[in-house]
Predict the structure.
Amino acid sequence: MDKIFINNMTVSTIIGTLPHERITPQEITIDAILECDMRKAGKSDNLFDAVDYSAVEKNIYEAVKNSSFFLLEALADKIAETCLAFDGVSGVTVKIDKPRAAAFSKSIAIEIRREK
C-alpha cells in the first residue's frame, strides 16, 4: 500500500485529566500515515486523482485545535476518523506525542491504526 506521511504537526489543544490541563491548552505533536493507492495519480499527474494531503492536514489541525479531550486515545481516534473521511484513504496510523506528560520522561506518546 502507498503511504502519505504527515509529520510533526504541532497543535495547541485542551488535553488531559488534571485540573490545570482542562484550562490551559498544551502543545502536542501529531504524525499521521495515510494509506492509499497512488497509482492513478502517479499516471495522471492530476490532483483530482490524489488524496489532497493539504486538505487532510488542515482538517486534522482544525479538529484538534477545536477539541477538548481527556485522553490521548480519544483524540487519536478523532484524528483517525477525520483522515478516513477522505476518499481514497483506506487506513491511517496516528501517533500523538504529549511533552511533559509524565514526571520522569520527556514525553508520552501513543499510536493507533484504523481502517475503513
About this structure: The two ends are 14 Å apart (CA to CA). The mean pLDDT is 97.
